[in-house]
């Protein structure tokens, strides 16, 4: 069975949000069009406590973009984003959600970040996404959403490590691009690990 996985299409990652991805809103019509072509659709949602360790604001004297050691993992510091129960953590209102089977929240523990929709960055916390997909009979996983160079990339890599035939829908994702070329490097990394890179046109005939 084919499953569509929508990663973090939330207000804070969209234009005007606290951690906006350039042109991030352009993925919404692509993702909406894709949903009619899948029987199983799930999504991930960044869902941070306000005192999360990845927020620069919680480390006096430190700035966004700096790295710290967070519970044994090198962690880049971000602006405050996707705080639990906030408008910024909500999915964009234009994103169709009627067919979603489940939403998997991540980044809920303040001492560890979670880019992947499957596991936290320490790989000690499991969101339950993999077991859900396997229980539903999913074999092929099609990933889209935000952002290519962080949460999407690590979700794709973990999807493959969990045994799914994993595809990235390239026109259904946008990158943060903290450094020029991050999008292209992320695509290359996913492809080198075995992900297949496609576009929505390959699915919508």
UniProtKB/TrEMBL annotation:
UniProt keyword list: Hydrolase, Metal-binding, Pyridine nucleotide biosynthesis
GO molecular function: metal ion binding; nicotinamidase activity
Pathway: Cofactor biosynthesis; nicotinate biosynthesis; nicotinate from nicotinamide: step 1/1
Superkingdom in the source lineage: Bacteria
Domain Isochorismatase-like: start-end pairs: 3-202
CDD domains: nicotinamidase (cd01011)
Gene Ontology terms describing biological process: pyridine nucleotide biosynthetic process
EC numbers for this chain: 3.5.1.19
Family: Belongs to the isochorismatase family.
Name of the protein this chain belongs to: Nicotinamidase
Record organism: Cecembia lonarensis (strain CCUG 58316 / KCTC 22772 / LW9)
